[in-house]
Amino acid sequence: MVDTLIIGAGISGLSLAYALHQDGRKVLLCERQERVGGNITTGKAGGFLWEEGPTSFTPTPALLKLAVDVGLREELVLADHRLPRFVYWKGQLLPVPMSPPSAVTSKLLSLSGKFRALVGALGFIPPAIGNHLSQQGGEETVAQFFKRHLGTEVAERLVAPFVSGVYAGDVHQLSARSAFRRIAQLENVGGGLVSGAILSRKQRQQQKPPTDPSLPTVRRGELGSFKEGLQSLPKAIASHLGENIKLNWTLTELRQTANQTYIAEFSTPEGSQQVEARTVVLTTPAYVTAELLHNLAPNASIALKEIPYPSVACVVLAYPDDALKFPLKGFGNLIPRGQGIRTLGTIWSSSLFPGRAPQGWQMLTNFIGGATDPEVGNLDNEQLVQAVHKDLQRVLLKKDVPPKAIAVHLWKRAIPQYTLGHHLRLAQINQDLAQLPGLYLCSNYTDGVSLGDCVQRAYDQLPIINKQLSIINDN
């Protein structure tokens, strides 16, 4: 018997297990793979250090606290917040405006595009009406929302490539209220994006907890990692959990008992194993969770199966310094669809975190595929390398030098898509799970896909689980 059984040792499961363990709860964390970390995959060879999944994180207070608590304070590295981001538009790499003055002088938007964005940001926007909205259940897609608020140029040249970079998604399919929840709410708060942002900021300042002096100081716009890569975090958490983690344990059945506990059956290297738990948390992807809940919560299972996960390939290539058009100094570049480039974007990894490539080399982490290019899932490694190399010849390379292929990782089911109707699917899931006290979901298909979102969501789950355990103990 354990207090909490957690399925899935990605960053969500690890963060929650660590928090419960620190609270003195008896926790068991089970993972079907032979390692912890989920999609966090760090490689190291030949003087190169690279990532094949998430490449960095926004240093949120929750994530920083977790890193410090597990002993990684001195391992933390932060990219220079002044490094520019670029968008490839009409054959040029143009810096993304990061401040009002830079927006005025930016070549990424035309004069009329800038004026349209300003007018819309101030709240002079058309209402969200029309037959298309009725057909979409009253929801706007990301493309529709930002086009209405900020104009076509911002939607195409800034928002669309951002969506490709974060979700590998399609702005014409994603729901604005789900994928950009905080921004979409600004209209309701203040009538426009600027006024809504001002009012929301005032509210957050009033509710903001005091700054934790024990945490490292970070600047707005900085991205973080660790000296030995992102995998340092899951490994450090796992070292604190010790025998509370079981690897190569595959959950085959989950059922509820008459005593409102749960019995979990596992297939393990030692044979079949059984665990009884007072509470259970599933941190697995939606399609895995759907199978696990097929009998316990059939309606939730159906809704979970409807959440799409497109294929995305991470292709890490390296080139000699003299093969590039210019010295790389920046975070990287994103590429809007319609530019004749298949690659979604490129992170200038050796510029972002120095020391990750041997002297004289530049390492580029490229992402290709996503919701707008499902055929990528059918390509082999060599085809993926050649597709990305062909794109880099147009964007970054000044001469045709064969790439050094560092790594190719095709994620067949990569990032959950918050498509139209996502909030209704979540409502159905929550309604079904309300009949199963003590069973919870904690994964990135609910309200945020970043590493910081995953850690914060796990911490938010802690008081809910502790409350349920208290109720069980009282009974």
TrEMBL record:
Subcellular location: Cytoplasm
UniProt GO BP: heme biosynthetic process
Pfam assignment, any one: Amino_oxidase
Cofactor(s) recorded in Swiss-Prot or TrEMBL: FAD
Keyword Aminoacyl-tRNA synthetase attached: no
Residue span, Amine oxidase domain: 11-456
GO function terms (MF aspect): oxygen-dependent protoporphyrinogen oxidase activity
Pathway: Porphyrin-containing compound metabolism; protoheme biosynthesis
Keyword Transmembrane: no
InterPro entries per the UniProt record, alphabetical: Amino_oxidase, FAD/NAD-bd_sf, Protoporphyrinogen_oxidase, Zeta_carotene_desat/Oxidored
Keyword terms of this UniProt record: Cytoplasm, FAD, Flavoprotein, Heme biosynthesis, Oxidoreductase
Enzyme Commission number(s) from the entry: 1.3.3.15
GO cellular component assignments: cytoplasm
Region described as Disordered: spans on this chain: 200-219
Catalyzed chemical reaction(s): coproporphyrinogen III + 3 O2 = coproporphyrin III + 3 H2O2
General function of this protein: Involved in coproporphyrin-dependent heme b biosynthesis. Catalyzes the oxidation of coproporphyrinogen III to coproporphyrin III.
PANTHER family per UniProt: PROTOPORPHYRINOGEN OXIDASE
Family in the record: Belongs to the protoporphyrinogen/coproporphyrinogen oxidase family. Coproporphyrinogen III oxidase subfamily.
UniProt protein name: Coproporphyrinogen III oxidase
